[in-house]
């Protein structure tokens, strides 16, 4: 069984909708189990034990949500040098009122420090989270789940 961790923060519900769509996509792949968690509830063990990671954040002031940054801050020094983190596949989804690029850059920069491996282009919802965006989020979930299940990543 492959475990995909979908960690997110949401105040308005937009990023949560995206996270749920990513989970639906991942769950559509056989032999995959998703763990959908808010960032403040996510632990070091969650990060270490998953086979793939989807990170979802709203864009606040051109940056990731503080709860996502807090997760990285709480776990970084504990994971340094741990082989179960090295090259862990990840994807990103962002709900943005602006362009989302600042939030994306900040997340990707930290993921480089963790030595995670980006495996697919991010999904950025600019404005409302509509059915088209949710469909793309489902595809994002399918991609990371199928790649992990097949051993590609």
Tally of helical segments:
5
Strand content: 15-25%
Shape-level CATH architecture? 3-Layer(aba) Sandwich
Averaging pLDDT over every residue, what do you get?
A: 96
Radius of gyration in whole Å, from Cα? 14 Å
What structural class is derived from the secondary structure elements? alpha/beta
* Major pleated sheet: 6 strands, parallel
Q: What is the CATH H-level superfamily?
A: Flavodoxin domain
Instruction: Give the proportion of residues in helices.
Output: 40-55%
Q: Give the helices and strands as they follow along the chain.
A: EHEHEHEHEEH
Tell me the span between the first and last alpha carbons: 15 Å
What's the CATH class, please? Alpha Beta
CATH topology: Rossmann fold
Quantity of strands, as a count: 6
Q: Extract low-pLDDT stretches.
A: none
The geometry reads as globular
Please tell me the total number of domains: 1
Outline the structure in words.
This protein is of the alpha/beta class. It has a single domain (2-149), classed as Rossmann fold (3-Layer(aba) Sandwich). Helix content is 44%, strand content 23%. It has 5 helices and 6 strands; from the N terminus they run E-H-E-H-E-H-E-H-E-E-H. It has helices at residues 14-27, 44-49, 66-79, 101-114, 131-149; strands at 2-8, 32-38, 52-58, 89-96, 117-118, 123-126. Strands 1, 2, 3, 4, 5 and 6 form a 6-stranded parallel β-sheet that branches. Helix 1 packs across helix 5. The two termini are 15 Å apart. The mean pLDDT is 96.
